[in-house]
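Take a minute with the sequence and C-alpha coordinates given here and flag any C-alpha coordinate that looks odd. Thanks in advance.
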Amino acid sequence: MKKKYRNNKDYNDQIDNFSHKFEKDVRKEKGRKSPVDVALRFIKFRARSQWEVENRLKRDGFDEGTIQETVQKLKERGFIDDEKFAYLYAYDSLVIHYKGPYRIRYELRQMHVDEYIIEDAIKKVLEEVDINEIIERITQNLDEQKKREKLYRQGFGGDWK
Protein backbone atom coordinates (compact mmCIF):
# COMPACT_ATOMS: atom_id res chain seq x y z
CA MET A 1 0.00 0.00 0.00
CA LYS A 2 1.48 3.33 -0.97
CA LYS A 3 1.47 6.12 1.59
CA LYS A 4 0.86 9.75 0.77
CA TYR A 5 2.66 12.52 2.52
CA ARG A 6 1.57 16.10 2.14
CA ASN A 7 3.96 19.04 2.27
CA ASN A 8 2.30 21.58 4.56
CA LYS A 9 5.01 24.25 4.19
CA ASP A 10 3.69 25.57 0.86
CA TYR A 11 0.10 25.40 2.12
CA ASN A 12 1.00 27.26 5.33
CA ASP A 13 2.91 29.92 3.35
CA GLN A 14 -0.17 30.45 1.16
CA ILE A 15 -2.34 30.83 4.25
CA ASP A 16 0.03 33.38 5.80
CA ASN A 17 0.26 35.42 2.57
CA PHE A 18 -3.50 35.39 2.08
CA SER A 19 -4.10 36.39 5.69
CA HIS A 20 -1.96 39.51 5.33
CA LYS A 21 -3.63 40.54 2.07
CA PHE A 22 -7.17 39.96 3.34
CA GLU A 23 -6.44 41.75 6.62
CA LYS A 24 -6.30 45.02 4.66
CA ASP A 25 -9.85 44.41 3.38
CA VAL A 26 -11.42 43.55 6.74
CA ARG A 27 -10.68 45.98 9.54
CA LYS A 28 -10.01 44.56 12.96
CA GLU A 29 -12.10 45.65 15.88
CA LYS A 30 -10.08 46.90 18.80
CA GLY A 31 -8.48 43.95 20.60
CA ARG A 32 -10.17 41.36 18.39
CA LYS A 33 -8.74 39.17 15.66
CA SER A 34 -10.15 39.36 12.16
CA PRO A 35 -12.46 36.53 11.06
CA VAL A 36 -9.93 35.52 8.39
CA ASP A 37 -7.18 35.15 10.99
CA VAL A 38 -9.45 32.98 13.13
CA ALA A 39 -10.51 30.83 10.15
CA LEU A 40 -7.00 30.46 8.74
CA ARG A 41 -5.59 29.49 12.10
CA PHE A 42 -8.37 26.91 12.39
CA ILE A 43 -7.67 25.35 8.96
CA LYS A 44 -3.90 25.66 9.14
CA PHE A 45 -3.28 22.29 10.80
CA ARG A 46 -5.84 20.13 9.02
CA ALA A 47 -8.40 20.54 6.25
CA ARG A 48 -11.85 21.52 7.53
CA SER A 49 -15.34 21.40 6.10
CA GLN A 50 -17.19 24.61 5.37
CA TRP A 51 -19.60 23.82 8.21
CA GLU A 52 -16.71 23.44 10.70
CA VAL A 53 -15.27 26.84 9.73
CA GLU A 54 -18.67 28.53 9.92
CA ASN A 55 -19.29 27.04 13.38
CA ARG A 56 -15.89 28.16 14.61
CA LEU A 57 -16.54 31.72 13.46
CA LYS A 58 -20.02 31.70 15.06
CA ARG A 59 -18.52 30.43 18.30
CA ASP A 60 -16.06 33.30 18.24
CA GLY A 61 -18.93 35.78 17.98
CA PHE A 62 -18.79 36.96 14.37
CA ASP A 63 -22.04 38.02 12.69
CA GLU A 64 -23.58 36.00 9.85
CA GLY A 65 -22.64 38.50 7.11
CA THR A 66 -18.99 38.53 8.12
CA ILE A 67 -18.94 34.74 8.31
CA GLN A 68 -20.41 34.34 4.82
CA GLU A 69 -18.00 36.91 3.36
CA THR A 70 -15.01 35.23 5.00
CA VAL A 71 -16.08 31.74 3.90
CA GLN A 72 -16.66 32.95 0.33
CA LYS A 73 -13.19 34.51 0.10
CA LEU A 74 -11.58 31.38 1.55
CA LYS A 75 -13.49 29.19 -0.93
CA GLU A 76 -12.37 31.38 -3.85
CA ARG A 77 -8.74 30.90 -2.80
CA GLY A 78 -9.17 27.13 -2.33
CA PHE A 79 -8.67 27.03 1.44
CA ILE A 80 -12.18 25.66 2.00
CA ASP A 81 -13.17 22.84 -0.35
CA ASP A 82 -15.57 20.18 0.92
CA GLU A 83 -14.61 17.75 -1.85
CA LYS A 84 -10.90 17.94 -1.01
CA PHE A 85 -11.72 17.79 2.70
CA ALA A 86 -13.92 14.70 2.31
CA TYR A 87 -11.25 12.89 0.27
CA LEU A 88 -8.44 13.69 2.72
CA TYR A 89 -10.60 12.79 5.71
CA ALA A 90 -11.69 9.48 4.16
CA TYR A 91 -8.14 8.58 3.10
CA ASP A 92 -6.61 9.35 6.51
CA SER A 93 -9.46 7.64 8.36
CA LEU A 94 -9.06 4.45 6.36
CA VAL A 95 -5.28 4.25 6.05
CA ILE A 96 -4.16 5.71 9.38
CA HIS A 97 -7.06 5.15 11.76
CA TYR A 98 -8.43 1.96 10.14
CA LYS A 99 -12.02 3.20 10.02
CA GLY A 100 -14.34 1.50 7.58
CA PRO A 101 -16.49 3.12 4.90
CA TYR A 102 -19.67 3.10 7.00
CA ARG A 103 -18.01 4.87 9.90
CA ILE A 104 -16.29 7.39 7.61
CA ARG A 105 -19.64 8.11 5.93
CA TYR A 106 -21.27 8.66 9.33
CA GLU A 107 -18.53 11.01 10.53
CA LEU A 108 -18.60 13.08 7.32
CA ARG A 109 -22.37 13.42 7.62
CA GLN A 110 -21.84 14.73 11.15
CA MET A 111 -19.67 17.46 9.60
CA HIS A 112 -22.49 18.39 7.19
CA VAL A 113 -20.69 17.33 4.01
CA ASP A 114 -23.09 16.70 1.12
CA GLU A 115 -23.98 13.07 0.47
CA TYR A 116 -22.76 13.01 -3.15
CA ILE A 117 -19.39 14.41 -2.05
CA ILE A 118 -19.10 11.73 0.64
CA GLU A 119 -19.90 8.91 -1.77
CA ASP A 120 -17.44 10.22 -4.36
CA ALA A 121 -14.64 10.57 -1.79
CA ILE A 122 -15.15 7.08 -0.36
CA LYS A 123 -15.29 5.60 -3.87
CA LYS A 124 -11.99 7.28 -4.83
CA VAL A 125 -10.26 6.12 -1.65
CA LEU A 126 -11.48 2.53 -2.02
CA GLU A 127 -10.10 2.48 -5.58
CA GLU A 128 -6.66 3.64 -4.39
CA VAL A 129 -6.26 1.58 -1.23
CA ASP A 130 -6.03 -2.17 -0.82
CA ILE A 131 -8.83 -2.61 1.70
CA ASN A 132 -8.11 -6.31 2.18
CA GLU A 133 -4.61 -5.47 3.40
CA ILE A 134 -6.06 -3.08 5.99
CA ILE A 135 -8.64 -5.64 7.10
CA GLU A 136 -5.93 -8.27 7.40
CA ARG A 137 -3.80 -5.92 9.47
CA ILE A 138 -6.53 -5.03 11.97
CA THR A 139 -7.89 -8.57 12.33
CA GLN A 140 -4.75 -10.68 12.42
CA ASN A 141 -4.68 -13.29 15.19
CA LEU A 142 -8.45 -13.05 15.77
CA ASP A 143 -10.94 -15.89 15.46
CA GLU A 144 -13.88 -15.51 13.05
CA GLN A 145 -16.36 -14.21 15.64
CA LYS A 146 -13.95 -11.57 17.01
CA LYS A 147 -12.95 -10.64 13.46
CA ARG A 148 -16.58 -9.96 12.44
CA GLU A 149 -17.21 -7.97 15.63
CA LYS A 150 -14.11 -5.81 15.19
CA LEU A 151 -14.84 -5.11 11.53
CA TYR A 152 -18.40 -4.14 12.38
CA ARG A 153 -17.25 -1.80 15.19
CA GLN A 154 -14.69 -0.16 12.91
CA GLY A 155 -17.35 0.52 10.27
CA PHE A 156 -16.59 -2.13 7.69
CA GLY A 157 -20.01 -3.77 7.94
CA GLY A 158 -20.49 -7.42 7.10
CA ASP A 159 -19.44 -7.28 3.46
CA TRP A 160 -15.77 -8.14 3.97
CA LYS A 161 -14.17 -11.56 4.27
